[in-house]
Structures are given as C-alpha cells and as structure tokens.
Design brief:
It is a single chain. By secondary structure, the chain is an alpha/beta fold. The chain contains five helices and five strands, in the order βαβαβαβαβα. The chain has a single domain, classed as Oxidized Rhodanese, domain 1, CATH 3.40.250.10. Helices cover 32% and strands 15% of the residues. The protein has a three-stranded parallel beta sheet with strand order 3-2-4. A two-stranded parallel sheet has the order 1-5. The longest helix has 12 residues.
Amino acid sequence: MSGCGTWSAAKTLTPTQVRQLGDAVTLVDVREDGEWASGHIAGAVHIPLGRLREEMDRIPSGKPVVFYCHAGGRSSQAIAVAMAAGQAHDTHMGGGISAWRGQGFPSAA
C-alpha cells in the first residue's frame, strides 16, 4: 500500500478492504471542517486537502496511509499532493465516506 511511485501507481481500496485493515493503516480525512464535524471514520486524522501540504507532518509514521473524502475526488488529489511533497502515500478509499456509510459501516460524530 505504500512505496515510491507516480500518480499512475495510485491504489484504490474499497470501504470493506479499509475496514478489514482496521488499525493496520492510518486513515486521513481530507474533507473540510464542517464535513468532518458531520461525521467521520473513528480514529481518522483530519487534515483538509487545502492544508495537506503544510500539515503533512501531522500524519503519523509507521503505517500505510489511506486518504478519504466524501466521494473519492479529493482523496485522489491528496495522493498527488503527498507524492509531490515526496511522501509515499499512494492509497485512497474509493467512494469516500459516502460509500463507507452506504455499506452500513459506522461513523463517529
């Protein structure tokens, strides 16, 4: 799930795969503050996409990173931002929290 690469090397996981990975990955929610406040995946780190480059150091090391957003667009952009900053974070959750909730998985307030 991690490693150096280019945008074409980006990986997409389903909500089921992300849930199965559990604490083996660090989830990073790149939605805006109001979206985060309306519910997020428990244990996720919140860094809005617009602040990601400046706050990349807030992402804990030691685990692969999986970005997510509302539907998958911004999390794809987050991979590009991370890789441009020299980070190996190349994975996101396709469909975002909408797909997560669509699977009936819980979200925290």
